[in-house]
Specification:
CATH architecture of the largest domain: 3-Layer(bba) Sandwich
Strand content: 15-25%
Number of domains: 2
Bound molecules: flavin-adenine dinucleotide
Number of strands: 18
Number of helices: 14
Oligomer: single chain
CATH topology of the largest domain: FAD/NAD(P)-binding domain
């Protein structure tokens, strides 16, 4: 059907064939509505096919116990949607589509196929099986509500279509080559919906000294710290912190210990130029500073002739690279280290500081933070309060989740609730 011009009137039109849009379309069709799905790419689910490093972390079994922590400030909004469509429902839904799943560490749920492509194919097959009309290569540029026939109209270059209910499922604006270029914000604004500030989330953090450093030998790139404390500081104030795995890259840091903090990177570039944005690593998050100081002093006293690198590696199980960094590439014997230098070592172990270079570009963030202001949306139906018949779902909403299947669970649950409500004419 791609590119075909139609003038049919549907019960429900869904704009965007990502996870939230496909879920909304399938649910509305199963509920008896006539449904059209418009997707700007030549196939649905392009971003979905990249998820979980190609394995697709579909959902997380720890929801709802931890959902307040995992969806940050706006978690409460999801309470209704997750009561209607919980992670078990996601697994059941996919089982019905022939996708069996299993759980890995921290509640992460993956398809047994270990392939995101199989999840995309299953959803596309379901759209067809249920009889959803799908038009690909249709980039919707305009939506409008016509008072005369009480219908919403979606206009693309290759056609215009009408329906009594319209579901906006166009995603955020990160990873724009997947089709999620932020179109939905303009469409929503045209329908008088407010959009909050948009910032990158789940992104790596660029560190100044890494971008300056060309010498591969010196670089910490490739180093993984399996469990450290990390924190982000702006103008001397701690903004956010976590404990998780951290990876060093050629540009800075990545992995959960960095990505989880990235949503709080300020957007004011002057702050970075002034060196006022700092990323800190606590290498021993389970020990207090005075405990570290005591352990270090006793190791040094017992082994006065031993060199400090060996002492740090043996006492605290640091890798050589970490010890070298703490010692600033010097390796004195313990008995030649002054009290002042010992204190400096302790404070570097508990708070190794790096200046952050800039706010990470949106293009490489895994999610967009911010979106359609939630106070304008009914959390039970996802319908816009000011624009009856218009629904907003998925990442386009002002909700972002932690890594671990939380963003897809938001897409499935809000898509489900909107599809059901739109089909029922609620
Ligand atoms: C590399 C990567 C890995 C990730 N891994 C995971 C993971 O393992 N688990 C997890 O929970 N989350 C993961 N995420 C986040 C997750 O993929 C998104 O939160 C999720 O895809 C959002 O779903 P959505 O349906 O709201 O939007 P999207 O998936 O962005 O889909 C929106 C769709 O709308 C279409 N569209 C946009 N504008 C228009 C228009 N004007 N007209 C027609 N169609 C339009 C787009 O082409 C796209 O197909 C990952 C993200 C990335 C980038």
């Amino acid at each position: 059907m791609a590119g075909e011009k139609r003038s049919d009137v549907y019960d429900v039109i869904v704009i965007g064939g990502g996870p939230s849009g496909m879920m909304a379309a399938i649910t509305a069709k199963r509920e008896g509505a006539s449904v059209l799905l418009l997707e700007k790419n030549s196939q649905c689910g392009k971003k979905l096919s990249l998820t979980g490093h190609g394995r697709c972390n579909i959902t997380n079994s720890l929801i709802p116990e931890n959902f307040r922590e995992k969806y940050f400030e706006n978690a409460k909004f999801l309470y209704s949607a997750f009561s209607a469509f919980a992670p078990e429902d996601t697994c059941r839904f996919f089982l019905g589509a022939g996708i069996t799943t299993h759980e890995e560490e921290n509640g992460r749920i993956f398809p047994d196929s270990q392939k995101a492509a199989s999840v995309v194919s299953a959803l596309i097959a379901l759209l067809e099986k249920e009889g959803v009309d799908v038009v690909c290569d249709a980039r919707v540029r305009k939506i409008a509500f016509s008072e005369s026939d009480s219908l919403w109209e979606a206009k693309a270059e290759n056609g215009s279509w009408k329906a009594s209910h319209l579901i906006l499922a166009t995603g955020g604006k990160s990873f724009p080559h997947t089709g999620s270029e932020g179109d939905g914000y303009a469409l929503a604004k045209a329908a008088d919906l407010e959009v909050t500030d948009l910032t990158p989330g789940l992104a790596p953090i660029f560190l100044k000294e890494f971008s300056d450093k060309k010498d591969e030998e010196d670089s910490m790139a490739g180093l993984t710290l399996s469990y450290v404390g990390t924190s982000l500081w702006v103008e001397g104030k701690k903004i956010v912190s976590t404990r998780a795995e951290l990876l060093f890259t050629h540009q800075g840091v990545s992995g959960p210990g960095a990505m989880r903090l990235s949503r709080k990177l300020p957007s004011v570039s002057d702050l970075y130029e002034q060196g006022a944005v700092v990323f800190k690593i606590d290498h021993l998050p389970e020990m207090k500073e005075d405990e570290v100081a005591e352990a270090l002093l006793s190791a040094m006293t017992e082994n006065p002739n031993r060199h400090m690198k060996r002492i740090l590696c043996e006492t605290f199980h640091f890798s050589e690279k970490v010890a070298e960094r703490i010692l600033k590439d010097e390796d004195p014997a313990a008995n030649s280290v002054t009290k002042k230098e010992r204190n400096r070592i302790v404070s570097d172990i508990k708070g190794m500081a790096f200046e952050v270079e800039k706010q990470t570009p949106m293009d490489i963030a895994y999610v967009t933070c911010g979106g359609i202001r939630l106070s304008q949306i009914d959390p039970k139906t996802m319908q816009a309060k000011k624009a009856p018949g218009l629904f907003v779902v998925g990442e386009l909403l002002d909700i972002d989740g932690d890594s671990g299947g939380y963003n897809l669970q938001n897409a499935w649950a809000t898509g489900y609730v909107a599809g059901l409500s739109a089909a029922r004419g609620e």
